[in-house]
Amino acid sequence: MLKYKRTQAKTEDEVRKQLLTELIQDGELNAQNQEKLIAKYVVPFVVNKTKYLSITNFIKTIAVGMLLFATWGIITIVIEKALDVFASIPLYVYLFLAFMASVTGLVAPKTYSKSQSDYVAITCAFTTLMVISATFGAYNKQLEPIMQIFRLGIPRVLIANFWLIVYFASIALYYKSQIIGFFTIVSLSSLTSFSLIYVPGTLFLHFKDEMLPIVVIVHSLELLIYMGLKLTNNFPEVFSVFKFGVEYYASIALGTGLLVGASPFYSHMKYTIPYVLLFIIITTGSLAVHFLGGIKVPGSVLTCFCFLTVLEWFGYIGFRGGMIVGCIVSAAGLFGAAGLIEKYSDFIFAK
After folding, report:
1. Number of C-beta neighbours around residue 255 at 10 A
2. Phi first, then psi: what are they for 115, rounded to 5°?
3. What is the C-alpha to C-alpha distance for residues 215 and 196, in angstroms, rounded to an integer?
4. How far apart are CA 248 and CA 147, in angstroms?
5. Residue of 321, 212, 319 whose CA lies nearest to 272
6. Which ranges does the record mark as transmembrane (predicted)?
């Protein structure tokens, strides 16, 4: 009689195999036929089940691929519709939102970051200008009547640079930022048409020819007032944010103007010799301040430009007078420079 036992098999083929084993153990089946019985009742089922699972998995894979393709199509449609919605919104809405976000970061930078509020304010100072520029670029025709009211016959560039000076100076003084203070001096130099433009591999120093006297006068006054206040200890500490702008940018602008004015190759320029004398006087004075007053940057910058001017004059004299005259002048200049270095080496290279 058969005895039924509780099995722990998990799959159907295991149940069949275990059932055959128990039947053999109970004497109901011949042990010699065990392999045949397993081959007949267990193995075909496993093979058929494997084939069955492979077919279903293939069908499911195709279904998943179709669902993914459909999902991609739905996402594409959603993106296109969203872009259509965004494009339907007027440009001034985006400009207004960007302007409000930028002004918020400028006026209340701690709204975005408490630990980096100064950097947020400096960044928003430039992004605000970018938004304003984009607004004028997009609605130039609509804003032109308003600009005509405030222009009063003054060129647009001068008006823009004036308000840039006011804008950058206010932010620099409020946040005590030397970066913004530097751009204040850049805007002031732009009033004289001087600009410094860098593209990969090339640095352009540019100003209009007819503005040469203005470039020299304005930047000479900048340096004169700055060094005068520093030497007399009357320079307000609050204006120290403009220090690097005046010492570096104004010195470069002045050196560029004097280099052009004193150059012998600019035949269309008038008063070349007066510019040479003015260059010598200003450079000598800035070097005196460099060694005696402790203000080193203007003297160093102007000396570099003065050296370039000397090289131009050597080349010009050599070109006009021939090789012999050029060699004599160059030799005299080199002996003179060597003599000055030998005589004043302790003073020049003093720490």
Report:
1. 25
2. -80, -25
3. 13
4. 34
5. 212
6. 58-79, 85-107, 119-138, 158-175, 182-205, 241-266, 272-292, 323-341
d(CA 3, CA 26) in angstroms, rounded, equals: 8
End-to-end CA distance of the chain: 116
Token pair of 67, please? 């669902």
Residues 6 or more apart whose Cβ sits within 8 Å of residue 232: none
d(CA 242, CA 236): 11
**Mean pLDDT of all residues in the chain?**
80
Kind of pairing, strands 202-206 and 195-199? antiparallel
Q: What is the dihedral of CA 264, 269, 271, 274, to 10 degrees?
A: -50
The per-residue pLDDT for 313 is: 83
Q: Tell me 198's DSSP state.
A: E
Distance of alpha carbon 303 from alpha carbon 320, whole angstroms: 25
- Cα distances (Å, whole numbers) of residue 127 to 31, 89, 164, 262: 90, 22, 14, 40
C-alpha–C-alpha distance, residues 106 and 127, integer Å: 9
- Cα–Cα distance for residue pair 299/176, rounded to 1 Å: 26
For residue 199, what are the β-bridge partners? Answer: 202
Length in residues, the chain: 351
Structure tokens at 50: 């494997």
Burial category of 83 from C-beta neighbours within 10 Å (exposed 0-12, middle 13-18, buried 19 and up): exposed
What global pTM score does this model have?
A: 0.69
Specify the DSSP class assigned to residue 349.
T
Q: In the chain, which stretches have pLDDT less than 50?
A: 1-7, 9, 45-52, 350-351
CA dihedral 330, 334, 339, 345 (to 10 degrees): 150
Over residues 3-23, the pLDDT tens digits come to 444 445 456 666 666 766 776
How far apart CA 32 and CA 24 sit, in angstroms, is 9
The structure tokens listed for 1 are 């009689």
Which two three-digit tokens encode residue 114?
A: 């408490």
State how far the Cα of 109 lies from the Cα of 103, in Å rounded to an integer.
Answer: 9
Paired tokens of 54: 């492979």
Burial of 272 (0-12, 13-18, 19+ CB in 10 A): middle
